[in-house]
Amino acid sequence: MRHWSPDDVEGAFRLFGDPEVMRYVGDGRPHADHAYTRGWIERAIAYDEKHGICRWAVDEKESGQLIGSCGFMYPYKDDDVDLGYYFGRAYWGRGFATEIASACLKYGFETLKLKQVSATVDVRHEVSQHLLKKLGFEFVKIIDNDDGTVDHYCLVVNPSMREGQVDRST
What is the pTM of this model? Predict the structure, then answer.
């Protein structure tokens, strides 16, 4: 994982402009053009500079090619950190999401000292639900979003914390 750069527009557009990659993300619409992706990258860089976290760029080690994005956001309030990830179709089913999301959680718990991390996933996205379970997330509740989508809200607790210290009120 690494910080985004303005030079990432082409690779990011290949990722976020793919309708299949974006099917379960937000309103399900892919980025329409390079200008939109450029703006997204600018917002991600600004968010990272302000909060010290974002959905960072993920490069394949061997090729150095941008293959996805994984990281954290504060979607609800500053103490509720949300994990999110996106990977290009060519990298689905090859363990990249598991490896990177696991490393991201480790960074969050060990370096950022997060108490817990949430994740929201479209109720139709069974592969992502399976990944979250594999990473230790537990289903908490269903969320009806303003845009008409429905998500599972899940939590994983820092392994160093005792049971019972999970804040399920979000």
Answer: 0.83
